[in-house]
């Protein structure tokens, strides 16, 4: 039997000296006020979808937990828990650089002092391996945790380290350090805050069965694991084109950032003569998006008809007073090259001003778009995707999947497409900032992909990701 728990992953950089105490209730009040006044996802999910009652219960639950959070580190966990109510992968809390009292984790003395003063340490109990409780071995074999009960109503379980952790001559934790705080939410379901090694909070789901505990892409097992660490597969962070065989080309695109557009266009144009091969693999694993303009040159070779449906037909700004002010201040920042452009920008802002306090109305817009031409070759396009694919990359996949030439392989994408236009707000007297989304995307078929992602046509096993290109060749391509 499998269970699923929403996981809040708080990476290691949030540790703070105990002297950095804070008024967490005050911080929760400030952050929730900013969200309620300005967040597009809040106004879409809570106000438009009439979930105010659930949100109030969640907020009350968070405020109760905040009463027992006295340090910056503890409060950061509570804040991330607060944000978990909204399904918005672009929105959240981000730590600043004010945490570490050292410059390197190799400074063992300072690191140990830092951890000791800030991380809760609990004695291990003599637990049986039953249900969620007991010993779990990390997939690398480097460390284990024990999940055990507490005597606290709001936090019924914790996961603690079973031994000190040292990795690559760096000290990262003491035996008994709490790595997972498991809370019971306002609905009675369990939610967990997982403290891992890194810099920023990320929300994951946790699932477990009798023999496996899954935390995002990290796995724990009941049975011991060899300490021979398997190096995680990682693709090069660059864009390149190569011929795999006489029938198949491979195009790796690591980013659709606008700064990479010229590179994508150049590489594709230089290799245009080779596109007479019947098969093209486009590998966008790890591509977190960028600009839709960056993949426009590819579409004539991918699409099988000139006219197709736009996945996103419009974007609607939530026009709070602060959001309007932000857009107003930036009105000349993009695409303004002449006095006429400036006047048009002013005119647009004045048109938006009358909608302050609501979403910008969506005008009648065409659901169709047209590519100037289409090509017979390649005859088959195979897109390889994984869960790091986000934002504009997901837009690229949604466009491409409308072509009968296209087949997708891999994992569900991240699901970071519904909200955008991120605005940063520094939290007063706290070493973190929040990023709030100001726009909601309108989909042609009203789909909801946020935190779900785009499912590929063929699911592949992430444990052998280094073999995915070969698997695509074997499964779908006649060499």
UniProtKB/TrEMBL annotation:
Gene3D superfamilies: 2-enoyl-CoA Hydratase, Chain A, domain 1
GO molecular function, one term: serine-type peptidase activity
Top-rank lineage group of the source organism: Bacteria
Keywords carried by this UniProt record: Signal
GO BP term, example: proteolysis
Signal peptide: 1-18
Tail specific protease domain residues: 249-458
Protein name in UniProt: C-terminal processing peptidase
């Amino acid at each position: 039997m499998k269970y699923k728990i929403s996981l809040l992953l708080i990476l290691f950089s949030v540790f703070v000296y105990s002297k950095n105490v804070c008024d967490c209730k005050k911080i929760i009040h400030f952050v929730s006020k900013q969200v309620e006044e300005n967040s597009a996802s809040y106004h879409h999910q809570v106000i438009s979808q009439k979930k105010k009652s659930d949100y109030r219960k969640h907020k009350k639950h968070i405020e109760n937990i905040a009463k027992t959070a006295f340090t910056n580190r503890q409060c950061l966990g509570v804040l991330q828990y607060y944000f978990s109510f909204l399904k918005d992968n672009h929105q959240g809390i981000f730590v600043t650089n004010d945490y570490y009292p050292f410059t390197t984790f190799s400074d063992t003395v300072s690191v140990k002092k830092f951890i000791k003063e800030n991380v809760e340490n609990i004695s291990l109990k003599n637990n049986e391996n039953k249900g969620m409780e007991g010993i779990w071995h990390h997939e690398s074999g480097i460390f284990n945790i024990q999940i055990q009960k507490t005597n606290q109503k709001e936090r019924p379980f914790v996961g603690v380290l079973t031994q000190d952790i040292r990795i690559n001559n760096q000290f990262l934790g003491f035996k008994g350090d709490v790595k997972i705080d498991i809370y019971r939410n306002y609905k009675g379901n369990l939610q967990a805050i997982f403290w891992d090694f890194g810099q920023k909070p990320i929300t994951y789901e946790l699932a477990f069965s009798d023999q496996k505990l899954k935390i995002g892409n990290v796995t724990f097992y009941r049975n011991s694991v060899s300490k021979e660490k398997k190096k995680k597969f990682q693709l090069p962070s660059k864009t390149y084109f190569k011929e795999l065989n006489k029938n198949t080309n491979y195009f790796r695109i690591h980013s659709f950032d606008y700064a990479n557009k010229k590179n994508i266009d150049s590489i594709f144009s230089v290799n245009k003569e080779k596109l007479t091969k019947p098969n093209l693999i486009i590998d966008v694993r790890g591509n977190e998006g960028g600009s839709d303009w960056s993949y426009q040159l590819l579409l004539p070779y991918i699409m099988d008809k000139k006219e197709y449906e736009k996945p996103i037909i419009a974007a609607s700004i939530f026009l709070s007073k602060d959001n309007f002010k932000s857009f107003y201040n930036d009105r000349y920042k993009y695409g303004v090259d002449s006095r006429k452009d400036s006047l048009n920008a002013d005119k647009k802002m004045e048109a938006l001003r009358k909608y302050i306090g609501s979403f910008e109305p969506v005008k009648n817009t065409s659901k169709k778009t047209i590519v100037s031409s289409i090509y017979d070759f390649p005859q088959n396009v195979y897109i390889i995707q994984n869960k790091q694919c986000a934002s504009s990359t997901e837009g690229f996949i949604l466009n491409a999947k409308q072509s009968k030439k296209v087949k997708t392989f891999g994992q569900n994408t991240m699901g970071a497409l519904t909200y955008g236009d991120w605005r940063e707000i520094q939290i007063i007297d706290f070493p973190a900032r929040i990023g709030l989304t100001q726009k909601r995307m309108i989909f042609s078929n009203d789909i909801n992909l946020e935190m779900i992602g785009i499912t590929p046509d063929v699911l592949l096993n992430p444990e052998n990701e280094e073999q995915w290109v070969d698997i695509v060749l074997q499964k779908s391509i006649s060499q």
